[in-house]
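Quiz preparation item.
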């Protein structure tokens, strides 16, 4: 599980993502899939970069904020510490690991759209066991898939 943030057109958004994977070793590439139902997807459609954050199991509160709340109703970024990264990307403070990736391609996969990213900036915070799907399965989606 990871949290993906997007910035475009003066808007910030972020959501909990379960569909994400490295998709190339050389050159380095990573793909994240965003639900078309999410506000994050609407912002990401025109974003130059996305930021992918890995959380530890003790950061379930962040997973609940980004997975259980919708940016249509709540300013998630007002509730936490974050900073600007490459090209104005939103980087969450304290993530176990993160990277900003330039969006190279967008692929419509049905109810989700894949964003192929080229990592351009990265870092990390405190380590620990990473948050997994089994740790987040009880979070009720802020924008459930219909």
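Solution:
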């Amino acid at each position: 599980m990871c949290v993906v943030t997007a910035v475009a057109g003066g808007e910030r958004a972020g959501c909990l993502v379960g569909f994400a994977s490295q998709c190339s070793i050389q050159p380095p590439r990573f793909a994240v899939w965003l639900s078309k139902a999410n506000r994050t997807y609407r912002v990401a459609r025109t974003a130059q970069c996305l930021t992918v954050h890995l959380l530890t199991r003790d950061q379930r509160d962040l997973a609940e904020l980004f997975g259980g709340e919708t940016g249509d109703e709540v300013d998630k970024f007002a509730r936490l510490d974050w900073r600007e990264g490459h090209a104005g990307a939103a980087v969450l403070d304290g993530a176990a690991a993160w990277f900003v990736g330039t969006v190279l391609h967008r692929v419509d996969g049905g109810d989700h759209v894949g964003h192929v990213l080229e990592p351009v900036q990265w870092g990390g915070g405190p380590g620990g066991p990473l948050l997994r799907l089994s740790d987040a399965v009880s979070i009720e989606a802020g924008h459930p898939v219909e």
